[in-house]
Amino acid sequence: MRIVGTIVEEESGKPLAGLQVRAFDKDLLWDDKLGMAVTDADGNYTIFYTVGDFSMFQGAETVPELYIRVFDASRKKLLYTTEKQIREGHLAVERFDVKIPRAKLG
To answer: Are the CB atoms for 81 and 87 separated by under 8 Å?
Structure first.
């Protein structure tokens, strides 16, 4: 399974390279980190994960509840999150395209 997407500047549509994207599975007690990637020159990223990454007891959780967080190049400043828009990952490939306002990139 994988999460793919493109990150661009909202105003210009310019791809944003070097940003870190982290993917998570939302759970009741703690969220499972599924993986991370850094955007390439075209603003694209891909994160691969397996059932074992989100299901503590094999088969107990069959569908991840996905969200992503996007950090700046320093990996410290949170630029964007979809944590309030959880998505059930029914597909083998889930796409999260993101537009970040120029003011946030400052």
So the answer is: no
Task: Assign residue 55 the CATH number of its domain.
Answer: 2.60.40
Residue 43: how many CB atoms within 10 A of its CB?
21
Domain containing 15 equals 2-97
Counted residue by residue, the chain has a size of 106
Contact between 24 and 32 (Cβ < 8 Å): yes
Claim: this prediction has a pTM higher than 0.85: yes
Rg (CA), the chain: 14
How many domains would you assign to the chain?
A: 1
Mean of the per-residue pLDDT values of the chain: 92
Query: What distance in Å separates the CA atoms of residue 92 and residue 94, rounded to the nearest whole number?
Result: 7
**Residue 105 lies inside a defined structural domain of this protein:** no
Query: Which residue matches tokens 């537009």?
Result: 99
What tens digit of pLDDT does each residue of 2-18 get?
999 999 999 999 999 99
